[in-house]
Amino acid sequence: MNVTAALKPQDALAAHLAADMEAVNALIRERMASRHAPRIPEVTAHLVEAGGKRLRPMLTLAAARLCGYQGGDHVKLAATVEFIHTATLLHDDVVDESTQRRGRPTANLLWDNKSSVLVGDYLFARSFQLMVETGSLRVLDILANASATIAEGEVLQLTAAQDLKTDEGIYLQVVRGKTAALFSAATEAGGVIAGAPEAEVKALFDYGDALGVAFQIADDLLDYGGSSAVIGKNTGDDFRERKVTLPVIKAVARASAEERTFWVRVIEKGDQRDGDLERALALLTSSGALEAARADAFAWAAKARAALSLLPDHPLRAILSDLADYVVSRLN
Known about the structure:
Organism: Stagnihabitans tardus
Number of helices: 17
Helix content: over 70%
Number of strands: 2
Protein name: Octaprenyl diphosphate synthase
GO molecular function: all-trans-octaprenyl-diphosphate synthase activity; metal ion binding
EC number: 2.5.1.90
Oligomer: single chain
Catalytic activity: 5 isopentenyl diphosphate + (2E,6E)-farnesyl diphosphate = all-trans-octaprenyl diphosphate + 5 diphosphate
């Protein structure tokens, strides 16, 4: 019997890539060191060792191995991807004024905003050093573009977050910035470093992009009905923070004049009262917005699975397919 068959897909991925991930973790520890500023490894270790799933670096390793790569540069690229991810989390927590991540106090709470921002900058710089060491201009281009897209998505979210004119096109741009850009860069870079044919590199990009979008829509949906144990935040957090996510966009598009007045009050004006979350949940359900957003998440997961059909037959391909199912299985 296949031992990984009974595991969650990310655990099966971790089991399959255990030796590679050990090398990635050693490289991360080595490169987050700083002779001159001991606060850098302190802050970085708090986040890097917080028990995250390391999904993004595993996607890079899986893509490279799936395409038959035998060298060592995929380890550098996986560490690069984790550094970019960690840097964006440090910056995000400052922007969002967060106090908790993965059930632990955030770095900006334990230290301060300045430390979080500057350590994030340091990790971005380290990630570019690692990219350059692979000697691949194309990989540098992919990951540099992803870094720009992430920053662009964050700035777009600032203006779109509490604006009911935000439509599904803008939402998708924000999601690509927040989540999908790094997923697709992680998988695409793995294929490029392996010297895979263009059709396979494109398929890996498409897989990462669709997986990231499905992942984020599922997260946004769970905010209106998931337990905090599943998503690491409380039900209704997005509502309280007045975030215009896909369920709200769909509900507003279908709203009567009276319902629209409610959404303007609670989201745009921020005038939230007792019972408003319950009313919002009732409107999201009765309008069919939750069901429509759920269908979108499953469609993106199906798109991710379809992209894999162009890749070599390999045990990792099956695990990546299961992963696409898993990110939306939380919605069942």
